[in-house]
Amino acid sequence: MHPQLFFFLFITFSFHPCSSQKNIQFKSCAPLPFSCGNFTKNITFPFSIDGTSPGCGLPDLHLSCTSDNLAQLMMNNVSYQVKNIDYEKQIMTIANMAYINIDDSCSYLSINTSFDYSLFDYTGNDHNLTYYGCSIPLNWSSSGFYELCNTGDYYYFIAVAVGVFDPLGYDYCDSRYNVSIGKPYSMDDLMKVLADGFDVMWKPGKDWCDKCVRSGGRCGFDESKPNDPLCLWPNGVEILAGLFELPKLVARLPHRPKSSTQLTYEKFNMGVD
């Protein structure tokens, strides 16, 4: 057997801190079914729903169901509809609730996309739009701007060309808004594209949770140390997720006399015959 693989198996089956307790947490962190309108998903880390056990999902990524049967995630006090969760790619599709099923699109344009960069990142498929609010109608089509709509006393323009001037330098334009969309658009279907939402990649569990799940484990975290993520197995074995790579794991294990297996592994890593 390959020495490095053998050492990993040795660690896996010999390191059992608080085995019974962690076995309970493994069972508690089982996927929970969540159904809300057309959205149905088994929810696991990093998300939480009503009924998620402590240490199994993050409160800041809590999903709920609105009275209109829309799956909802709150981010910076802004309500987003959750349209899809792809655990394999770690991508979530969300849409600002303000843009869904609205009759007067213009009255809802004064809403920024509020984004929490500590939890999410944009994907390569996302497009960011900037539009402006002005108090008088302007003929800016030749300057790279397009009028989206107006309320009669307020006008919204979007920049459709690269490098156009910033109208906030003018007395009649006092607002700038940023929104995200997930695909190319035309002016005629912009509101529909906004309602379709955009993709975000979540950061909690990035790089380690997928490895944990593929190994047969479940992702969680230590309640007393929320910054210490855990990979839980049915036999109660836990590995700090940040140490999932074998060399890092060795450095954090409690000190114990070196076995012949450990010595063999160290020699293998140092190139000693």
UniProtKB/TrEMBL annotation:
It is a single-pass membrane protein. Residues 185-234 form the Wall-associated receptor kinase C-terminal domain. InterPro entries: WAK_assoc_C, WAK_GUB. Transmembrane segments: none annotated. Residues 29-95 form the Wall-associated receptor kinase galacturonan-binding domain. GO terms for cellular component: membrane. Its main location: membrane. Keywords: Glycoprotein, Signal. It is found in: Membrane. GO terms for molecular function: polysaccharide binding. Residues 1-20 form the signal peptide. PANTHER family: OS01G0113900 PROTEIN, OS01G0690200 PROTEIN. This is Uncharacterized protein. It comes from Acorus calamus (Sweet flag). The lineage of its organism: Eukaryota, Viridiplantae, Streptophyta, Embryophyta, Tracheophyta.
